[in-house]
Amino acid sequence: MENFKAPEEAQDKLHFLDYWRVIRIRKAIIFTVFCIVLLSSAIFTQFMPEKYRSFARMDVQKDKADVNLMDQFAPTGGFDPYWMETQFEIIESTAVLHEVIRELNLTSEFGNEYGDGTPMQLDTTYKLLSSMISLSQTRNTSIIKVSATTNDPDLSARIANTVVDKYIEYRNSLLQDASSRGITALLKQEGEKIEEIQELAQELEQYKKDNDITDLNPGLYATSYSENPELIRQLASEESRAEQNYEKTKSIYDHLNRLRDNPQKLKEVIEAVEPDQRLTSMLIELDNAKLMLVNNLQRFNDSHPDVIATRAVIDELNRQIQDKIAAIMEGWEVKLSQSQAVLKITSAKLEELKLSKLAKDDKQLEYERMKRKLNSEQRVLEAIQAKINQEEINSNITRGSEVTQIDTAKAEKKPVSPSWTLNLVLGGIIGLSIGIGLAFFIEYLDTSVKTIDDVERALQAPVLGVIPQNVGAIIDEGPDSPHAEAYRVLRTNLLFSRKDKTKNTFSVVSGGAGEGKSTTLFNLATIFAQNNERVLVVDSDLRRPSIHKILGISNSLGLTNYLLGQNSLEEVIQTTKVPTLDIMPSGKLPSSSMGILNSPQMKELVEILSKRYDYVFFDSPPIMGISDASVLASLVGYTVQVIQYRKYPQAMTIRAKQLVQKIANNLTGVVLNNINMSQDSDYYYYSGYYYDYYYSRNEESDPNAEPKNGKPSSSMKAPSRGDKPGSSPEIKQKY
Predict the structure, then answer these.
(1) What is the pLDDT of residue 161?
(2) pTM value?
(3) What is the CATH number of the domain that holds 495?
């Protein structure tokens, strides 16, 4: 069993049933918390004051005149996503709610309702009123719903209607104030502008007299100062053409001048740039002369008269071509000079005309500037006067209210709160949530052994058996007891787990007291004995012996008497009603006999009993803090550790297992004890299934059998292996 390893899936994965198991086990806590919270919700709802809610609705639009005259073509405002939220803030502002408080005298009414009868402060009343009012907008509309919730249904209706009325009055007052303020401001600007225009007119007239200026166009702006603008444009165009001609001529001349060192290339370029008939004919004659020279040299030598004459012709033609090219280059120089002269003359004329354009009288220019300023101020005055007329007309036009109340608040007879259904449902949900959360929190804090996976993961040891809750002595229930099946499974697993079949001594240990170690050992020994095996149970728990209490026998003689040499082995062993099961009680322990289990006599006794019996079981005290259990574990062949379900922390069970492994290293496996099968369905398949199978089998085999209290009769005994039909079982001698 040392190499046992828990499966990874059991360690790393949690199934939904694991959570369901926690809920089932902790259902008492969950139910208690649920009931407490639900009851608290009911009590709280019972004592809550009744609240009544009334609401009024109004259609809120942006302001506009009934008849749009002067600004009928002005663009209207588009969709404003923040405008409605702004109106919400205005309704809840002090400008509106203070008027509601004064209208309804809420300082006194709230003082009587929520105070000691004295009027409340205005700020306190405003805060209380704000908490009673709620605003909402009907989706995709401009309708605002104003709700008021108070203890008085009539007061709720009056508050909702008054809030709407005061908001409408506030909007109307804003329009009137804005119109009157606008006209007043425009009239003030008109007066100031008239005075300014009069001063400018006087300054202009005085300047005209002082400088003897003749105004040929009174009341009009001055004309352009340009003299003959068409002539300026014509000269500018001629200057541009002259400049282009000069740049083109200069480019060709510079290119030809760079080719003077390459006569052949120069000839080709000149012929392409400026074709000349005489130059072309000379080039043709030169090519023909060169061809004739080549033919003569093939027939004659260099001194032949024809060769000499041909060369003379070629030289003459080259001289004439050079002269012609030189003449052409001189012509291009002349063209370049002419184009440059034309450009200078044109530029000079244009500059002279521009200077003459600017040669105007400075006084005339200043007069025209003053005149333009006066005309500009006059146009501003006309615009102000037009706006004043427009506002006066608009103020006289009747305006329909842009806020229309479409629903009037009425006193409701049915309160909106408290809501029993809502509060109880919420209380139930909250209570259930808190209960489940508390259950999982307690489960998280509980580090005891809960599942087989916990044992295999923490102890790295196999689980040999699972014992149900509230199991008594199997010897009293008989071999056909449903509880006995769990111990038969334990016996089978224990026998298959033995490595050495010759070892037949067992010790059952536990980490702490009260884990069911003694009951498990005795019932396991009973199952072995019912299988016709000679079995001895030794109560070696000298601290708190309990085997004699299970059988109801005397504990005056037993293990201690034999180890101290006071009685023989035959005298300290007692029989039971199971023929093959014997008991050795612990005996009374003298005060001077502590540590007698760690004596040579005890070791010798274990060897003797292992030879006389098929199986020997030694009960022991808890292994934590007491050395007797460790001594017994080292003397026997195999040790089984009993762990009670949800009793001690895992650290304690791990420490107990480590002590056994350190001293004897003979731990065979673990037994989970006291499992509540009704709550923990995970363990049903270990032993619970046997009940259904057992009863259905008995009903089919013996339909006339009548079980007692739902259990088979305890008088039925399992037949021995050597029994024959019609005969009683043979009882072996003790030795």
Answers:
(1) 93
(2) 0.47
(3) 3.40.50.300
